[in-house]
Amino acid sequence: MTKDLTQLEILTELEPVAEQNLNRHLSMAKDWHPHDYVPWDQGRNFAALGGIDWDPEQSRLSEVAKAAMITNLLTEDNLPSYHREIAQNFSLDGAWGTWVGRWTAEENRHGIVMRDYLVVTRGVDPVALEQARMIHMTNGAHAPQDWGGFLVNVAYVTFQELATRVSHRNTGKVCQDPIADRMLQRVAADENLHMIFYRNLCGAALDLVPDQAMTALTSVLTNFVMPGHGMPNFRRNGVLMAKHGIYDLRQHLEEVVNPVLKKWNVFDRNDFGPRGEKAREELAAFVEKLGQDVVKFEEQRDRMFAREAARGKLQPV
């Protein structure tokens, strides 16, 4: 059984791993420019410059696509809050600081390109979008009080980045626009590389301090919420996204939770002490219940679709 390490000791021990994975990331990341993914020829002035302000009929996006694009964009907009959380819990020294800066710069492109696309194509109401941005960013993103520290944060961002990748990728499909699909494929590719960095660091933490890391991991997954949960209309938009398969419980379990736990060999490891074993048992029970919840959710969704079809109200996504 290994003794508990302080956060500073963990960061110090893992800095070589951070440097190795930073270099890996830099060797694999592709430079790209938001302006190359926006159909500028579709743009025109709004009323303030002598044009016409937004009207719902101008949008070619379905209600589902609008909800998903707004949710994903407002999530990206809260980047200053995420930067603060990561900077406070990782460090700004050495490879850690270089990663925090690089990650922030890469994530910032996502908000830039998505907003430019939506404004140029008039996909959503730009005034309502700006009002929601102001509310969401003013509120900021705040981790629960017992979620402090490197181990919890690195576990959370591993799952969150992968969840965001899934959400962006499926949003691109539901937009039914090849330009939007290409743009969100590019964004999703970034998120995947970010996930790999965090996943590798969290895996190294599991090897270094198994009990501490396992406890943090269980806390994250049993309390998991997407980073945009405080934004306006988050619940409504989240329900729409789940209903139409952009991000639902099955995707959360089968495309996010299970693959990462398998990569870390969580349920076959033999290096846990009593505390780690207890956390692993709690996680196993949670994952089993999540599988049951998936079935219940899908049964409810199927019944809802059947009722809507019977009433002739089923709308295409």
TrEMBL record:
GO CC annotation: cytosol
Residue sites binding Fe cation 2 per the record: 107, 161, 191, 194
Keywords, sorted A to Z: Fatty acid biosynthesis, Fatty acid metabolism, Iron, Lipid biosynthesis, Lipid metabolism, Metal-binding, Oxidoreductase
Short name of one Pfam family: FA_desaturase_2
Cofactor: Fe cation; Fe(2+)
InterPro entries reported in the protein's UniProt record: Fatty_acid_desaturase-2, Ferritin-like_SF, RNR-like
Cofactor note: Binds 2 iron ions per subunit.
UniProt-listed GO biological process terms: fatty acid biosynthetic process
GO molecular function: metal ion binding; stearoyl-[ACP] desaturase activity
Annotated Fe cation 1 binding sites: 76, 107, 110, 191
Record carries keyword Hydrolase: no
Family that this chain belongs to: Belongs to the fatty acid desaturase type 2 family.
Quaternary assembly: Homodimer.
PANTHER family tied to this protein: ACYL- ACYL-CARRIER-PROTEIN DESATURASE-RELATED, STEAROYL-[ACYL-CARRIER-PROTEIN] 9-DESATURASE 7, CHLOROPLASTIC
Protein name listed in UniProt: Acyl-[acyl-carrier-protein] desaturase
Biological source species: Nocardia puris
Lineage: Bacteria, Bacillati, Actinomycetota, Actinomycetes, Mycobacteriales
